[in-house]
Amino acid sequence: MPPLVHQAEQHRSTVPGIEAMTLVSNHHFPRHAHDQFGFGMIDFGVQRSWSGVGPIEASAGDVIFCNPGEMHDGRPAEAKLRGWRIIYFDPAVIRRFVEEETTGELEIVRPVLRDPLLAQHFARLFAALTDSQLDVLGREETLIRAIACILQRNGSCRPRCNNVRSPSVTEVLKRLDTESDHPVTIAELAAFAGLSRFQLLRAFKRETGTTPHAYLVQKRVCIARQLLAAGEMPAQAAIAAGFSDQSHMTRAFLRYVGVTPGRYRAAVV
């Protein structure tokens, strides 16, 4: 078994609402979702993932994408290192640009694409976001051109057709979303949904792609990320997000985001 290698850099982005990361890792990211759009590129190695369209594989030169709330995981081929860079956009940032051209919400169509033009736009945008010397006009132009290219070559602005979820799972999701800072048990969720514990676990996994506990941890990580970006200190963010303590939050943050809360905060505040 090769040793675990995980090097992640959270860059200080020059545009509010946009984050940039560089990773070199053989870490296996569990199934999770982001509350942002993701636009990245594999620099070397091979990444395999489970996605809503089935198993996918991305290799050096491929561009990779994810929609907000879209469940996926990520693992290296044969436990070998892979390296990638990725940009995360808050949906509001995308919406401001897209609404000038069309109606509806942007949805990324394919999670992996071999497209040299998109790869060029990614490289230019990543450089622009991490270059504090570039003037505002040049940065905005690069950003708009990249978003336009994504929309043209791998996007749709039709209203997204979400999978129809059962009322019981919908209610459990609502409970986890609105009271994520409160402890809860499977028995309580099952009673809330009117299902047995086994029925709840099966239905939840089938309809969301993950378990109630994993979903709750991801929700807390998303809340903690927002609090840290707003300037909250890690210890306070951990309690406010529902973690038992800061070390618990740090472990979850590393697992799902790839960097520690302290390094994340230092890059975005």
Description:
- With 269 residues, the chain is α+β, with helices and mostly antiparallel strands.
- 44% of the residues lie in helices and 23% in strands.
- It has ten helices and twelve strands.
- A hairpin with a 2-residue loop joins strand 5 (46-51) and strand 6.
Map the helices and strands.
Blueprint: E1 6-11, E2 18-25, E3 29-32, E4 37-44, E5 46-51, E6 54-59, E7 63-66, E8 72-76, E9 82-89, H1 91-98, E10 107-108, E11 112-113, H2 116-129, H3 136-154, E12 155-156, H4 167-178, H5 186-193, H6 197-208, H7 212-229, H8 234-241, H9 246-256, H10 261-268
Antiparallel strand pairs: 1-2, 2-9, 3-8, 4-7, 4-9, 5-6, 5-8, 7-11, 10-12
Briefly characterize the structure.
The chain is an alpha+beta fold. It contains ten helices and twelve strands.
Give keywords.
10 helices, 269 residues, Jelly Rolls, 44% helix, four-stranded antiparallel beta sheet, alpha+beta, Arc Repressor Mutant, subunit A, 2 domains, six-stranded antiparallel beta sheet
Oligomer class: single chain
> In sequence order, what are the helices and strands, one letter per element?
EEEEEEEEEHEEHHEHHHHHHH
Helix content: 40-55%
The CATH superfamily of the largest domain is identified as Jelly Rolls
Low-confidence stretches: none
| Biggest sheet record | 6 strands, antiparallel
Instruction: Label the structural class.
Output: alpha+beta
* Strand order across the largest sheet: 1-2-9-4-7-11
**How many beta strands in the DSSP annotation?**
12
